[in-house]
User: Which sequence fits this backbone?
């Protein structure tokens, strides 16, 4: 569904932002892209909807070569939600903001109003419908940015740092949203610094460092690998650190498993 | 997108080390020329006269980027003048000459201002404004406005990417439609500038900006012989251009 073949891109000569990227993501997968600042995460996802075209190699999305396809065509199938909502909110009202993409993609009018209503409800924005987006709080603006992309039901959803500035309840809401998208066999790619979020909710992780993919696989396996996390300058999830401190074998990213291991430890001590 | 060439890099050329005040006099005089004359040949000469300074200062690359970055506006000016003047006078030749003049005028202005900003450090500029008795608050405001131009152009790029991701096609439609296409880019840009301005103000005040009643300066700019020479040349060139009007009636 998404495939990168030996893709490199550089903004200024001599320094690659991403280098020799090979990657394949199937329909219905949920993937986290992790890595330190400047690892190339955002550059990578901008290739998926054609904002950036590979300088060498190729990116194929839903059978389309991004080099030969316009951003507008790709964007219809690839919804990319940017990190900072202030970089896209512009309309007079929350409702019109959500309508923007729908009108751009020429949805019929009744379909537009149906989808706008769905998005307003889904993201808890119904009561702000007629307010200017700029007067919403930070968290609400973030939700509006999500709503304004998810309203047109793209097959691939890419979220750049969706958890920043969100409280725990909103993160849970986001997690259930991802789960729901997944159940509709949408493909979801989440770029994040929030390793806890990835550990808790996302089954596959891709770890980037200095423009390269240094690991790609099962989140539990990757996020409990001490050397790997160190080399990517990532702080391990708290559950993993706790498992290490308790010398649990194998360490885990799942709360339930940690609890049962601890219980076993305690029972062993009592016996 | 590196829009205008206000992207100062430290340099050691003679143009760089001139006092900002003397460069400012040059900028004012030559700006006056571009506004005064309408003859395309004269405007071309004014434009070309800034080229040697670019060469001496060794800022050719950034200068070219300024010119290239303004090509869109130049095309815009050209087309609108062409249509507008043809509409009112009905003469293709007049319209053509006038549009060429207007485009050259804009190019000359971009070039002259680029030379000034590419070779003058923002700190020196602020200091020279203060020494010209401009209140420090205004001088600093100006300095910061310049300082944020590259930030703004980076941000504009991100916003364009974000809106294109929602299906905005900037190149779609006729010329009026295209201008309208930029609304979803301009509004977030303006609003985030306001937000940033507020943040910067808060950050400055929390570091005691404005606490001292009387400011003193660590460095004071002084005009040297080369500055007076440069001003002399600028004034001479200015008068030479004006003589075109006086002697030959060219305007």
Assistant:
């Amino acid at each position: 569904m998404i495939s990168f073949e030996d893709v490199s891109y550089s903004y200024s000569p001599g320094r690659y932002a991403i280098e020799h990227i090979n990657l394949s993501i199937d329909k219905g997968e949920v993937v986290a892209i992790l890595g330190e600042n400047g690892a190339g995460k955002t550059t990578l996802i901008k290739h998926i909807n054609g904002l950036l075209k590979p300088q060498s190699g190729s990116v194929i999305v839903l059978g389309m070569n991004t080099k030969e396809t316009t951003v507008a065509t790709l964007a219809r199938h690839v919804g990319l939600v940017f990190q900072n909502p202030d970089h896209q909110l512009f309309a007079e009202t929350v409702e019109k903001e959500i309508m923007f993409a729908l009108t751009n993609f020429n949805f019929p009018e009744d379909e537009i109003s149906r989808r706008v209503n769905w998005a307003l409800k889904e993201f808890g924005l119904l009561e702000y419908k007629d307010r200017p987006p700029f007067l919403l709080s930070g968290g609400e603006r973030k939700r509006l940015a999500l709503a304004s992309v998810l309203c047109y039901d793209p097959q691939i959803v890419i979220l750049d740092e969706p958890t920043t500035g969100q409280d725990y309840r909103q993160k849970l809401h986001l997690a259930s949203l991802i789960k729901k998208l997944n159940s509709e066999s949408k493909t979801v790619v989440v770029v994040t610094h929030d390793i806890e979020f990835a550990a808790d909710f996302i089954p596959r992780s891709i770890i980037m460092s200095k423009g390269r993919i240094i690991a790609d696989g099962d989140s539990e396996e990757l996020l409990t690998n001490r050397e790997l996390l160190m080399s990517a300058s990532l702080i391990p999830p708290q559950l993993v650190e706790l498992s290490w401190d308790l010398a649990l074998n194998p360490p885990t990213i799942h709360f339930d498993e940690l609890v049962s291991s601890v219980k076993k430890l305690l029972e062993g001590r009592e016996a | 997108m590196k829009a205008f060439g206000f992207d100062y890099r430290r340099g050691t050329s003679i143009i760089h080390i001139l006092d900002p005040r003397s460069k400012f006099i040059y900028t004012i005089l030559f700006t006056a020329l571009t506004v005064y004359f309408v003859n395309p040949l004269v405007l071309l000469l004014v434009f070309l006269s800034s080229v040697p300074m670019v060469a001496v200062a060794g800022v050719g690359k950034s200068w070219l980027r300024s010119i290239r970055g303004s090509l869109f506006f130049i095309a815009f000016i050209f087309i609108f003048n062409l249509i507008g003047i043809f509409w009112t006078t009905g003469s293709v030749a007049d319209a053509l000459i006038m549009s060429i003049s207007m485009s050259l005028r804009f190019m000359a202005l971009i070039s002259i201002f680029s030379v000034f900003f590419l070779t003058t450090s923002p700190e020196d500029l602020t200091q020279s404004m203060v020494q010209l008795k401009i209140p420090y608050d205004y001088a600093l405001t100006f300095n910061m406005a310049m300082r944020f131009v590259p930030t703004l152009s980076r941000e504009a790029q991100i916003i364009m990417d974000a809106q294109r991701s929602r299906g905005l096609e900037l190149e779609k439609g006729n010329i009026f439609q295209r201008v309208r296409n930029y609304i979803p880019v301009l509004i977030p840009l303006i609003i985030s500038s306001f937000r940033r301005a507020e943040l910067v103000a808060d950050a400055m005040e929390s570091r005691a900006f404005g606490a001292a009643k009387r400011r003193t300066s660590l460095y004071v700019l002084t005009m040297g012989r080369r500055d007076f020479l440069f001003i002399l040349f600028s004034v001479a060139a200015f008068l030479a251009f004006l003589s075109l009007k006086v002697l030959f009636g060219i305007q």
Remarks:
- Chain A touches chain B at residues 46, 49, 51, 70-72, 75-76, 78-80, 82, 84, 86-90, 100-101, 104-105, 134, 148-149, 152 (CB under 8 Å).
- Chain A has one domain: 2-236.
- Chain A has a mean pLDDT of 92.
